[in-house]
Records
---
Amino acid sequence: MAELKNDLFIRACKKQAVERTPVWMMRQAGRFLPEYRAVRDKVDFLTLCKTPELASEVTIQPVDIIGVDAAIIFSDILVIPEAMGMKLEMLESKGPVFEKPIRNENDFKKLRSIDPTKNLKYVLDAVALTKKNLNYRVPLIGFSGSPWTLFTYMVEGCGSKNFLNAKSLLYNNPKLAHSILDRLADIVAEYLSAKIEAGADAVQIFDTWGGVLSQKDFNEFSLRYISKIISNIKRSDQPVIVFAKGVHHSLKEIAYTGANVVGLDWTMDLHKVRNEIGEKVSLQGNMDPTVLFADEKVIKDEVKRILASYGKGSGHIFNLGHGILPNTDTEKVKAFIKYVKEESVSYNK
Amino acid sequence: MAELKNDLFIRACKKQAVERTPVWMMRQAGRFLPEYRAVRDKVDFLTLCKTPELASEVTIQPVDIIGVDAAIIFSDILVIPEAMGMKLEMLESKGPVFEKPIRNENDFKKLRSIDPTKNLKYVLDAVALTKKNLNYRVPLIGFSGSPWTLFTYMVEGCGSKNFLNAKSLLYNNPKLAHSILDRLADIVAEYLSAKIEAGADAVQIFDTWGGVLSQKDFNEFSLRYISKIISNIKRSDQPVIVFAKGVHHSLKEIAYTGANVVGLDWTMDLHKVRNEIGEKVSLQGNMDPTVLFADEKVIKDEVKRILASYGKGSGHIFNLGHGILPNTDTEKVKAFIKYVKEESVSYNK
C-alpha cells in the first residue's frame, strides 16, 4: 500500500509527533467555495451526492484551493434514511425535509432493511474514486451521523427547535426508540466499515444533536449506540473521531467509547478537556465558525489563543467547532489555514 | 409591610430552610394556558404587555390554576429596545422581528436614551397592580434580558441560528459592541431597580443566548455586563437570579457576580454544580420542558431524579431548564407541580 504524502492528520489522531498541527474544516466540501457552487448550480444536492465523479470533485476542491490536511467525502448524513425508503427533499428555505416522518411502530416497520454496500454503493464508489484521485496527497475521511442525530431528522421530519417529537418518542415509547436506534447503529457500523474498505483513512461520527439531551438521556439514547458502532466497525488502524456538539457533560464517557479523537465545539475549553481526557484521546477543534467573518487580525489571534489553549505536544487536530458557514470568504479561510500552519510549528517542537 | 403567605421561593433563594422545594416555571405566564390564550385572542402581544390590567391577569393565572410558588410578571425582554425606538413586530411564524436592526454606529446613535421609570412605566404599573392583586399570596418576580441577549435581537433583527451579525459586530467593532452593551446594562439596572421599587420580590436576568459564545467572548461581552447590572441594582434584600442557558463553562463566574441564584438548563448536573457553587448560591432548575409531553409516570420519575440530584437541604428552586413550551397540556403541568410539592418534602427535613 502506498503511503500518504501528508499524513499529519493521521499521526495527530494517533497522538504521534507532527511537525505542525494539521487542520481541516467540517463541511469544507460543499457550502462555501464558489467552485462548489458552480458544480451545484448544475445539479441538485442529492444528485451531487449520488454522482461519484461530482462528489469526488467537490471533495478535493478544498485540498486544492485551501490547502487543508485532510479531505472529507462530500455526502450527507441523511443518505441512510433515504436509502431506507424515506423520501428526502432538500429545500433551500427549510433544509432537509422528510415527507413522512417516523412516529410509530407502523412507520418504522415500513422502512426497508438495507445493506450499505448495495444501497449506498454510490457513496462507496465516491470514496474509492476520491481516494484514487487524491493520489495519496492527504488522507480521506468518511463520516456518518450518529443514530440519535439521524433519529431526530427521521422523527421530526425536518429541522427542529425543541425536538419535541423525537424526545416524546424517547419518553413515551422507549422500546420503539431503542429498536430504531439499534437498527441505525448496525447500519452505521456497516456503512463506516464499508467506507474504510473503500479507502477511507479515518471516519467521523457526527452527533450534531447530542447536546439537546440531558446527560441521562444522552447516555441512554445516544452514547450507547455510538459505543456499539465503534465496537463493530471493521478497521485495521483507521482512527475514529466522535464529534458530539454541546455534549459538555460526557466528554470522558465519549473518550472511553474507543474513539481515537473527540471533536469539541467552541464552547469547550481545550486546555481543561485535554487535562481530563488528553491522555486517552486526541482532540479536534474548536474555533467558532463565525470568527471567519472577522478581520484577519482577529482570526489570527483566535488561532493563536486556541493553539496556546491546547498547548505543546501532539494530539491536536485544528478544526472549526461546527461546520463552516455558507458565504464564508475564501480569502479569509485561506488566511485561517495559513495561520494554523505557521503558528502551530512552535507547539510541536 | 405585610408578609408573604407563601415565601418558600424567597427562602430558598436565600438558602434558608423550607418545608418543601418551591416550584415555578419560566414562561408560565403566557404561552401554554388556555386561559391565557383566551385573553391573547382579544389583543395582540404588545398590547397585552402594555395593558397593566391584562398583564396582571395573565401573570396571576398560573398561581390560581397551577399552584406555582411564585408569579413572574407577564412581559417580554424586547420591551427595552422597543422603548429605545426600535419598531418591534411579533410574527406568529417568525417570532419577534425588528424592522431596522442595529448594525453600525449610525444605527446605534438613532436609538433614544430612555428612563425606564417613564418609558417603561406600563411594566412598572403592571408590577404594582399585580403585587396588589396577588395580595401577598406568593412572591412576584420581575425580569429582564441580559445585555448580550438583548443585543443579539437588536443586531440580528430576528431569531438567528448562527448569530453571525451579532458576533461579527463583536469581532469587527468591539468598541461599538461594548458601547451598546454598556448602555443596555445601565438601562437594565435601572429597569430592574424600578421593578423592585414597584413591588417585585425578586428579579431574574435571562441570558438566553449566552451559550452561543465561547467562554472568552461570554466573559467579555456578556458576564461583564451582568455583573455590572447586579452591582447597580437598587435593592434591600430582594434576590437576583441569573439564568444563562448553555453556559456550562462559567457557572462559577456567574456565582461570583453577586447573584443569589443561578438557573440551570437541563444539560447541567445539579449534583455536580451544587458541589462547585452550592455554598455560594442557590440553584434553580432544571427539567427539560419536553418532559411535560411524556406520560405522568415519566414526569414523576424525572422530578424524583432531579430532586435526588440536588439532594437534601435548602437552596433548590425547582423549575424547567428553559421556558415551558406552547401546547403543553395543563393537566400534565398540574401533575408536575404536585409531584414536586409531594416528593420534595423528604429532601427538606
---
Amino acid sequence: MTHQVVIVGAGFGGLAVAQGLAGAAVNITIIDQRNHHLFQPLLYQVGTAVLATSEIAWPIRHLVRKRKEITTLLGEVTGVDTQNRTVLLEDGGMAGYDSLVLATGARHAYFGHDEWEPYAPGLKTLEDATAIRRRILLSFERAERETDPVARAALLTFVIVGGGPTGVELAGAIAELAHQNLPGEYRHIDTRKARVVLIEAGARVLPSFTEDLSAYAHASLERQGVEIQLGQAVRECSADGVIYGDRPLAAKVILWAAGVRASSAAAWVGLPADAAGRAKVEPDLTAAGHPEIFVIGDTATINAWHGKPVPGIAPAAKQQGIHVARTIRMRLGGDAAPQNFRYKHAGNLATIGKRAAVIDFGRVKVRGWLAWWIWGLAHIYFLIGLRNRLAVALSWLWIYATGSRSACLITQGEQRPAERLR
Amino acid sequence: MTHQVVIVGAGFGGLAVAQGLAGAAVNITIIDQRNHHLFQPLLYQVGTAVLATSEIAWPIRHLVRKRKEITTLLGEVTGVDTQNRTVLLEDGGMAGYDSLVLATGARHAYFGHDEWEPYAPGLKTLEDATAIRRRILLSFERAERETDPVARAALLTFVIVGGGPTGVELAGAIAELAHQNLPGEYRHIDTRKARVVLIEAGARVLPSFTEDLSAYAHASLERQGVEIQLGQAVRECSADGVIYGDRPLAAKVILWAAGVRASSAAAWVGLPADAAGRAKVEPDLTAAGHPEIFVIGDTATINAWHGKPVPGIAPAAKQQGIHVARTIRMRLGGDAAPQNFRYKHAGNLATIGKRAAVIDFGRVKVRGWLAWWIWGLAHIYFLIGLRNRLAVALSWLWIYATGSRSACLITQGEQRPAERLR
C-alpha cells in the first residue's frame, strides 16, 4: 500500500506540505471546509473594497490539479481516531492516514466575550471580508440619510480593536477610504469628517516591531487622521459602540483585530494547549506519543525561534510545512530520527496606508514609501499564478492613479429563500 | 425652486435618464435598493465562475460623483403618493418630485409556482449569481464524495428551464465548465459526463431570433454536449429534480430562466398591467393622467416597435431613458406637447459558448466565431470605464488561453451570526 498522507487545512502550511511532497511515493488527501486557498495577508483589502474576492483566493483542487496523487475533499473535520489512524468528517465520512498533518489555522477570539462577535466582527474568511465591507459601506449610506447629528456621528465612527498588523492595516485602509477615496460621492455628509479610532490595550501599536518603527507607524496613522488610544482595554462591545477604559464611544462599525483562537486540533489528538488553544507540539512538530501526527501553523505553538514562540504568520506556517514534508520523505527513506524544527525569521512587514509601510528585516529597517513599494512587490510575488498577480497589480495601480476603489459593493444583505432552505 | 427629478432604479433605463439630463436645470435624486448599477447581460458569467462580481457592477454614487446636482439614496421604495408628488420609502423616508421616473426592472417569475424558487433559483442580482455559482460548484464537490451512482448522477445533472438568451447562455457556460474547464481537477468523477439539460416549452430555442439562427444555436449547444428538450413545459420543481411533460428527471441543480415579473411600479401609480405585471404606459411613456410620471424599461410595456411590444433588453431601456430625458428638457423649455416614443431595434445577440454566438442585425445575420468576437467586443465596449473593460478583457483572455476559470469560489454558505443579528 502506498503511504497515505492526510492534510487537514489548505492554508499556507498545508499547501507547503503538499508541495514539499511532490514526487514522493505517497498518496495525499487534502481536506478543507472551504473550496479555496486564501491569501490572508491581503484579506483586509477585500474588507476595505480595494480587491475583489477572486483576486486573493484559488480553488484548492485547481492548484493541485496536475498532481494526480492528490485528492481534494470539501468537508469539515470533527475529530481524529488516533487508534485507527482515521480522520472523522461531519457528514460521517472518514479518511485513513499513515501520516496526518493538522494545519487548521485559527479564528479571531474575544477573550471570553463571544457575545461581542455580532457587534465586532473579525477578519479570517472571504465571508468575513465581504460582511465587513458591507458594514463599512452601509454605514456611510445610512449616515447620508440620517438627519440626527448624534446618530450620524455614530454611523461615521469606525472603531478598530487591536493595534497589531491587521488592526493597523484596517485603520489605515478605512481612513484612506473615508478621507481620500469617498469624498465627492456623498451630498449630505463629509466623509473626511469620519472618525477612525484604533484602540490598543498595550503601550504601542505594532508591538512585534521595534520601538522606532512603532513610533513611525503611530505618527503615520495620525497623519492619516486615525485616532489612537493606547493602554486601554475594551470592556464592552454593543450595537451602540464600545466602552474602553471607562469611556464610552458611540460607533456603529466595530472591527475586531485583537486576538485569535486556534482551531480544535489540539483536542482532536488529546494534546495540551496554551491559552489561545494552540496545541503544544514536540520539537519536530509532532504530537507527543504520535510521531505520525504533525500539527503546524496557527493551530500549534512551539518555542523554535531561539527559544521564543514561532509567530503566527504565513512564512512560519510555510517553513513548518516544508519541514514536515522533509521529515515524511526521510522516514520513507528509512531514516526515522526526529528532525527538530528551527524557525528562521525573515522579517516583519505592515502597511499603514498609501505610500507608508514599515519593514523590519532585523539588521535592516525600512519605512515610508520605499517600504510601501517593497511591501507591494513582495505581496504580488507571493500571490499564486500570473493571473492573480496581474489582477492585483491592475487593482492597485488603478487606485494609485485614480483614487477610486473598484470593489465598493454592498452584497450579501439578505439570504435568499433558496439558500435558507437547502 | 429648481425642478426636482426623482429616478427610482439605477439600471440601464434610470442611468440613461440621469445622463440625458446632464447640464439641464434640474436637481436629481436617484433611489435604488442596491448600491450598485449592474451590467446584467454578463451576470450569467458571474454565475458560472467566469467573472468576478466587481467586474460587472459599479457603485451608483461613484458613477455620478461629478454631477453635484445628483443625490444618490440607498433605499427601498414602497409606494408613490401621486397626489402630493412624493415617493415613499420603506423606512418612512420620502422624496418629493416634479418629474418621476420609475425604472425598477423585473425579477424572475414562476408562473404562479413561487414555491419552486428554493429549488430553481433565477438570475437577476449579484447575490443570485454568487448563490448559483455556489450551487453549481458545490454539486461537483458533493458528487466527488458521493459513492451511490444514482445520487451521484443527480448531482451531476444540471437543468436549465427556459430556452431564451439567458437559458442558452447559462447552458453553454455550464457545459463548457463541466466538459472543458473542470476535467482533471477531480479524482472520483469525470466532469465530462455531467449532463446539462435545457428545457424549453416552445418549439425552438432563442424564439426571438430567426429560425435559421435558432437552428444554428440548437446545433451548437448539442455539439457542446447540451441536451435540449423542446415543447415540454416544466410541471414540477423540487429538491429531487424536475418533472417535464410527464417525465421526471433527477437533478440537484435547477436554474430558472423561463419568465420574469415586473416590479410593483404599476400598482404604485394605479396603472393597468399586463400578465407579467408590466405597467401599460401612454405612447410618450407617461402614466395615464399623470404626465409627470414616466415608467420605462422592464417594468413597463408599450407597443412602440412598429406596433409590437418593445423587448425587455438593455438597449430598449436605454432608448426609453434618453427619450424621457429629452421630454423633460423640452418641457423645461416650455414645449409640453407629448413626444411619442419609437423603439429602434439594433439587433439580437446571444452567445452559446466558446467561439460560438448568434447575432441578428435584421438584414445582416452573423453566427459562429465571428459573431462570438463581435459579441465579446460589443460587451466590453458597453461596460462602463476603462478599469472594468481591462479586468473583463483580462478574465476572458485568460480563460481563452488557459481554459481555467479564476472565479470558482464557493462563498456565502453560512450567514455569519454577526449578519443574522443586524
